[in-house]
Amino acid sequence: MAKKISPEMSVENLYVSVEDKKILNGINLKIKPGKIIALMGPNGSGKSTLSQAMAGHPKYRVDRGKVMWQGKNILNLNPEERAKMGLFLSFQYPYELPGVNMYDFLSTCYQNIFGGESHKKNFDKKLEESLRSLKLASSFLDRSVNEGFSGGEKKKSEILQMKILNPKIAILDETDSGLDIDALKLIAKNISDLKSPKIGFLVITHYKRLLKYIKPDEVHIMLDGKIVKSGKYDLVDKLEKQGYGWLK
To answer: Which of 15, 68, 96, 191 could form a disulfide with 63 if both were Cys (CB 3.0 to 4.6 A apart)?
Structure first.
């Protein structure tokens, strides 16, 4: 009888360095389908390093540990293979791709993951629905990826990609930064609309303001490359009132 493979992603004793500087010091974390996991911590605590290492950025050197998912240690796979498995990363600072328009970019990503036949049947319809849900005009698709975009447009671009690619695990790295209240509510609604038993979220943020709209199932706090405290939503309220000083 074949061994049943767990759908959750498991980060196990992960140590990561950047340019010989140790950043992560033994991270253990589980991301389960159907759950929203919040990861909080001050600047420099290692939150973005964790997201980049999980996605496969070559700058981040894994010294020890594993990230197990779908029966594989995905740290042994290249970023494209991880993406095809259903891993998505929304960047804190989205990259610009001058000369590549949004439509061609999204179309190519979709086709690479789902194949040409699915593309012909579903892509344009899904794209139209996603634009409408994010209150983006169709002319948005004619613009080069993130070039000349406002901060809010860049974050909407990331969520648009997520909606089109329909990942199994979505890592959102400070998606709320630089957003006004209306854009924040709109993006929070689009994230909430995607919540299902088939997708797990890791939401990285400094602040309560996004989390009060999407209500995480678990909250973890990082300091100095380690998770030092875990709990439920009331932990967010405590951080909002007391900051991180009580954890040091």
So the answer is: 15
Query: What backbone torsions phi and psi does residue 247 show, to the nearest 5 degrees?
Result: -95, -10
What's the predicted TM-score (pTM) here? 0.92
Mean pLDDT of all residues in 67-93: 94
Boundaries of every domain in the chain: 9-96+167-247
Architecture of the domain whose range is 9-96+167-247: 3-Layer(aba) Sandwich (3.40)
User: Per-residue pLDDT tens for 227-247?
Assistant: 999 999 999 999 988 888 888
Look at residue 84 in the predicted model and tell me its pLDDT. Answer: 92
Alpha helices by DSSP H, listed for 77-115, are 79-85, 102-114
Please give the structure tokens belonging to residue 74: 């995905």
Question: Which SS3 state, helix, strand or coil, does residue 25 take?
Answer: strand
Q: Which of 185, 182, 140, 184 is nearest to 161 (CA)?
A: 140
Helix ranges, 203-244 (H)? 208-214, 234-242
Q: What is d(CA 238, CA 233) in angstroms, rounded to the nearest whole number? A: 9
